């Protein structure tokens, strides 16, 4: 009888610890600190500076839903958690919306690639974004304003 009284809380605590470690292990700033540096964080957003040198690769990591804005051009290969690959030619100033996802990255280019990822922490907004399979397009004026602001901030 005494064994079961202590076993349940201890097993429960171990399960919580296990899943917490898994969740933290996928945070790119923890798993890939050479490529992802925390720039700013509050209860609403996480802003991460992204940098891949020529031919650098990452391990599998997760991003919350958010917007990436490219600061310097790059030829990248993304591999999702199921092994599906996609090559991207990223252009400076280009913003893209992403729902929550897991992937590995490889810089296929001869130059460094830099970007800023702005992750949205609001779970309701992230879940809503996951349900909408399409990526909303930004109008040209908004793209230009976002790109100019981020490029100015990077100087």
Detailed description of the structure:
The chain contains 4 helices and 9 strands, in the order ααβββββββββαα. With 155 residues, the protein is α+β, with helices and mostly antiparallel strands. It has a single domain, classed as Jelly Rolls, CATH 2.60.120.10. A hairpin with a 4-residue loop joins strand 5 and strand 6. Residues 10-25 have low confidence and may be disordered.
Report the span from N to C terminus.
66 Å
Per DSSP E runs of 2 or more residues, the count of β-strands stands at: 9
Number of helices: 4
Low-confidence stretches: 10-25
Question: Beta fraction of the residues?
Answer: 35-45%
Q: Judging from the principal axes of the Cα atoms, what is the shape?
A: globular
Which topology does CATH recognise? Jelly Rolls
The level 1 CATH classification is Mainly Beta
What percent of residues adopt helix (DSSP H or I)? 25-40%
How many domains is the backbone divided into? 1
Q: How does the helix and strand content classify structurally?
A: alpha+beta
How many strands, which pairing sense, and closed or not: the largest β-sheet?
A: 5 strands, antiparallel
Order of helices and strands: HHEEEEEEEEEHH
Mind telling me which CATH architecture this is?
Sandwich
Q: Considering the protein shown, what is the CATH homologous superfamily?
A: Jelly Rolls
Sequence of strands across the biggest β-sheet: 1-2-9-4-7
Mean pLDDT: 78
Radius of gyration: 18 Å
List keywords for this structure.
alpha+beta, Jelly Rolls, 155 residues
Short description:
Helices cover 34% and strands 36% of the residues.
């Amino acid at each position: 009888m005494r064994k079961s009284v202590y076993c349940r809380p201890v097993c429960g605590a171990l399960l919580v610890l296990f899943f917490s470690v898994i969740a933290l292990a996928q945070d790119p700033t923890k798993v890939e600190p050479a490529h992802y540096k925390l720039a700013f964080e509050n209860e609403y957003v996480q802003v991460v500076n992204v940098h891949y040198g020529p031919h650098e690769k990452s391990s599998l990591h997760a991003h919350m839903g958010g917007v990436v804005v490219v600061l310097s051009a790059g030829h990248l290969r993304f591999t999702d958690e199921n092994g599906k690959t996609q090559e991207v030619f990223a252009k400076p100033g280009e913003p893209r919306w992403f729902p929550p996802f897991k992937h590995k990255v490889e810089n296929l280019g001869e130059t460094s690639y830099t970007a800023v990822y702005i992750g949205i922490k609001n779970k309701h907004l992230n879940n809503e974004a996951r349900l909408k399979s399409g990526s909303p397009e930004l109008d040209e004026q908004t793209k230009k304003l976002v790109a100019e602001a981020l490029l100015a901030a990077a100087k």
